């Protein structure tokens, strides 16, 4: 069984491993923001329950929200383009990592990065 700290480190590493990714704390120490080319692709909230905000295609965002109770409109974000994923649930980590990849790719494509 992993600890809360282990979970934070796992998701930090997942986001930091993206090519050109940087980690910042513009909203205070309670939220880690991951950017590529100066644009956000993930926000990791460090309080319990652990959650991550991810950019998403608007149509896909609605499908994910309808399909997974752990996925909700982006907390403090543009709800059309962002989802919040509750990381304290039994969702498969590989599925979530795929959503992180999608968010990163969407930001890179939209802003012609990398």
From TrEMBL:
Record flagged with keyword Transmembrane: no
InterPro entries: YjbR (IPR007351), YjbR-like_sf (IPR038056), YjbR/MT2646/Rv2570-like (IPR058532)
Pfam families: YjbR
Top-level lineage group: Bacteria
This protein's UniProt keywords: DNA-binding
Molecular function, one GO term: DNA binding
Protein name: MmcQ/YjbR family DNA-binding protein
């Amino acid at each position: 069984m992993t600890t809360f700290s282990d979970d934070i480190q796992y998701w930090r590493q997942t986001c930091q491993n993206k090519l050109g990714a940087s980690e910042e704390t513009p909203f205070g120490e309670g939220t880690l923001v991951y950017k590529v080319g100066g644009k956000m692709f993930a926000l990791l909230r460090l309080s319990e329950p652990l959650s991550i905000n991810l950019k998403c295609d608007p149509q896909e965002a609605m499908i994910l929200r309808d399909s997974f109770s752990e996925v909700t409109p982006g907390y403090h974000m543009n709800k059309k383009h962002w989802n919040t994923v509750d990381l304290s649930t039994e969702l498969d980590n590989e599925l979530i990592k795929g959503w992180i990849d999608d968010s990163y790719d969407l930001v890179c494509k939209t802003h012609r990065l990398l």
